[in-house]
């Protein structure tokens, strides 16, 4: 957990926390996702027929793994396990909706950023008692 992001009380501290969460999101969504997770988290990806290496439910495992990577960053940065749990669930849902082509890539990213803003607001409210 990063000491400076534990209990944001001022606008500047809140913005620092948001910046740290945005960096974590960028790392988790791009270099740490990798091609395998990026491709196989989508349930519509076509796999070789009858392949034991690619069970029909592989997408669930890949999407959950990707969501947990994001949750790990949220937990380390905020020190709050409840934010991490929320991130796991929300990231899974937001990415699943994107894979269904209900939302666009840009909407997906805005929703993820919106979650980070909510964590900052909640952290600031909790730090004020």
TrEMBL record:
<keyword id="KW-1133">Transmembrane helix</keyword>
<keyword id="KW-0472">Membrane</keyword>
<keyword id="KW-0812">Transmembrane</keyword>
<feature type="transmembrane region" description="Helical">
    <location>
        <begin position="58"/>
        <end position="85"/>
    </location>
</feature>
<protein>
    <submittedName>
        <fullName>Uncharacterized protein DUF3307</fullName>
    </submittedName>
</protein>
<dbReference type="Pfam" id="PF11750">
    <property type="entry name" value="DUF3307"/>
</dbReference>
<dbReference type="InterPro" id="IPR021737">
    <property type="entry name" value="Phage_phiKZ_Orf197"/>
</dbReference>
């Amino acid at each position: 957990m990063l000491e400076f992001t534990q209990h944001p009380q001022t606008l500047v501290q809140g913005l620092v926390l948001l910046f740290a969460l945005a960096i974590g999101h960028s790392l988790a969504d791009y270099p740490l996702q990798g091609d395998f997770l990026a491709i196989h988290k989508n349930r519509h990806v076509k796999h070789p027929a009858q392949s034991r290496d690619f069970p029909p439910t592989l997408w669930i495992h890949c999407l959950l793994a990707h969501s947990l990577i994001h949750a790990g960053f949220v937990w380390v940065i905020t020190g709050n396990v409840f934010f991490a749990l929320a991130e796991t669930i929300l990231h899974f849902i937001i990415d699943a909706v994107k894979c269904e082509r209900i939302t666009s890539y840009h909407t997906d990213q805005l929703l993820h950023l919106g979650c980070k803003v909510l964590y900052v607001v909640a952290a600031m409210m909790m730090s004020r008692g």
